Amino acid sequence: MKITVNVSRYLQSEIDNGKSVVRLAEEMHMGEFQLRHLLKPEPATIDRRSIEKVCTYLIDNNIVDQSQLPGVLLSFETNGFWNLLADRDRIDVFTGVRRHGSRGLLIVAADSILTTNIIFRSTNTGSINRPTIDQQLVRTWDGNGLNEAAIQKEAIKEFKTFRSRHADKAGVFCGSVKSNPAIEPAIARAFKEATPFESQDNVGAPHERSCPLIWLCRENDPHPPSVCTGRQLSETIKGDGPGIYYEVPGGSWKRVAWEEETSDAALVYYRHDLNKAHLDMVLGGFSGRSTRCLANYLRESEPEQFWPPVYEDKHLVIGVYVVKFTFGAHGKNQGSGITSFQRPKTVQVFPLDGEVLESRIKHPRRARSRSAVSAAK
Question: Is residue 296 part of a domain?
Fold first, then answer.
């Protein structure tokens, strides 16, 4: 465990907008060397007076609320995966809901357990920061009395509202597109040529898909039009059965299968836009069973398999992992009745290859400096 200094994160927007380190140091009434030292993630020493001057500058320029300081400038680095969430100022957890007669809106039990475990782990990691956490309910496909277009419109609106918030924020999307439509715009925005709620089942070949993974539905599953959910890999290739498929180098696709008795699949996905301080994270299973298994796995294990990310540059961090749960021939159910769930015998994690992602990634637009904006005018 080590202490990480986050000063550079909160001053980067000032530098991107044309202020030099020399100018910032002058405005903070400190030496240039002192500030450059603090901008390092692991400075050899941390001077209390220098931290005070940085805090004063952030407050006076309305960059960080006074109540968040100095905590947000320091964090314990334990496992990068959980720090992705714990180091944010705000976490919005998006969960799908269904209408069921007079009982009102219902959340699937597995999604509720997953949400609880995410909150538990992200607030009990080593970070000094304690994020604000809110839950957003997204109406989903079956039993809501809404037509398809209305559901899509609501999901996109919820996602855009989240993106417009001025905060260092994370959106955690639980489940799959089958149960949580807000996952669709969250994943689609990461890839070139990807349009939310537009099926790509009829592409000429699987490698022509804009998204390098897909949930291939069972016969009786909801199958809304989706860039990452469907019935077949391409116009001529149906696939080998239900599960989560992902592309590997060379253009072929592998399946992590859903089998009623023996196996199930789940997805762990994150995309962190460093310039805009915006994290999207999708956590969910192919089925309720695998969502419950993922929830318990994230709570009980240190998820080293999900870190470091499979793609990383100066502005963007992406991780995509397909998880396989294998059950014994007569797997033991934990609990009884509606609380029963099948505990997996083995867990395997398959990361997507960074080369597969690189050709498809939609890179974020960088903020222009004030001088560039003036020149454009």
Answer: yes
Residues 6+ apart with CB under 8 A from 17: 367, 369, 370
222 upstream amide cis, omega within 30 of 0: no
Distance between CA atoms of residues 320 and 53, nearest Å: 39
The CA–CA distances, whole Å, from 113 to 9, 172, 295, 300 equal: 33, 14, 7, 13
Cα(21)–Cα(31) distance, integer angstroms: 10
| Inter-axis angle of helices 48-60 and 21-28, nearest 10 | 100
| 14 in Cβ contact with 76 (< 8 Å) | no
Which residues are CB-contacts of 222 (< 8 A; sequence separation ≥ 6)?
141, 142, 178
**Residue 9's pLDDT band (boundaries 50, 70, 90)?**
confident
Tell whether 366 is covered by a domain: no
Crossing angle of helices 7-16 and 48-60, in 10° steps, is 50
User: 146 and 31, same structural domain?
Assistant: no
Residues 271 and 252 in one domain: yes
Q: What angle do CA 360, 192, 350 make, to 5 degrees?
A: 40
- Total count of domains within the chain: 2
What is the spatial distance between Cα 328 and Cα 335, in angstroms, rounded to a whole number?
A: 17
Residue 149 CB partners (closer than 8 Å, separation 6+): none
Q: Helix, strand, or coil here: 339?
A: helix
Contact in structure between 53 and 29 (CB atoms under 8 Å)? yes
The string of pLDDT tens digits covering residues 10-37 is 887 788 788 888 999 999 998 888 888 8
Q: Give yes or no: residues 124 and 250 share one domain.
A: yes
Place of tokens 């961090």: 317
Q: Are residues 236 and 320 in the same domain?
A: yes
55 and 159 part of one domain: no
Residue 88 sits in the same domain as residue 59: no
The position carrying tokens 């301080």 is 277
> Are 305 and 327 contacting, i.e. CB atoms less than 8 angstroms apart?
no
Residues 207, 309: one domain?
yes
Domain span at residue 21 reads 2-10+17-77
Read off the pLDDT of residues 188-246 as tens digits, 9 standing for 90 and up: 999 999 999 999 999 999 999 999 999 999 998 888 899 999 999 999 999 999 999 99
